[in-house]
What does this fold into?
Amino acid sequence: MSEIIKPSETPLVDVRHLKEYFDINTGFFKTRPLKAVDDVSFTIAKGETLGLVGESGCGKTTVGRTVLQLYKPTAGEIYFNGNKIEGKKALKEFRTKATMVFQDPYSSLNPRMTVSDIIAEPLDVHKLYSSKEERRDRVLELMGHVGLNSEHASRYAHEFSGGQRQRIGIARALAVNPEFIVCDEPVSALDVSIQARRSSICLRTFSKSSVSPIYS
Ligand SMILES: Nc1ncnc2c1ncn2[C@@H]1O[C@H](COP(=O)(O)OP(=O)(O)O)[C@@H](O)[C@H]1O
Ligand SMILES: [Mg+2]
It folds into this structure.
């Protein structure tokens, strides 16, 4: 990174004492908490990437999802750019700046949607264009960022390999121009032998200019 980050600078992501407990059914109306994440704290500066590596089931995916508040935290605080993420308004704004690349490119992409519509979905949701042409141009730009050919835009997700689907998912995640993305095991669909050895999650922040290209 070309940027020099002063130690005093506010971290982009600041996670304090995060806990995520799931209720597990243990019998007739009985549950017990499963402590998937128990008191995790970390900070990530702008332009920095944090990797979480560990055995399967140790809580990496849950950390990623809870930081993005796809799961409501059982306890703990999440600050983004110094602002605490709480309440609907803050959460909605946070969602335009922080996003997730899902682990499984087979189940996370709708096979009946074209690549173009999949990538444009966040643009549609957050109304981030003013004309059809702008939408199309942005989709083609995003496809270029992840090394997908523009001719693929009108094809369907099921026509692609796992690695290509992962790129489609990454292009979709980048559509909102995020400052922070959580990539859950981004290499898993690329090579099965890598998948067996390495289980990781990567929490990546961007300074605006460093988003492209993800793949070359
Ligand atoms: N939605 C859920 N409901 C109940 N238990 C869950 C849920 N998601 C994950 N878990 C449990 O939480 C633990 C951590 O899972 P996970 O975060 O997926 O680990 P990792 O990504 O490191 O493999 C596991 O024991 C898993 O079974
Ligand atoms: Mg996982």
Notes: The two ends are 18 Å apart (CA to CA).
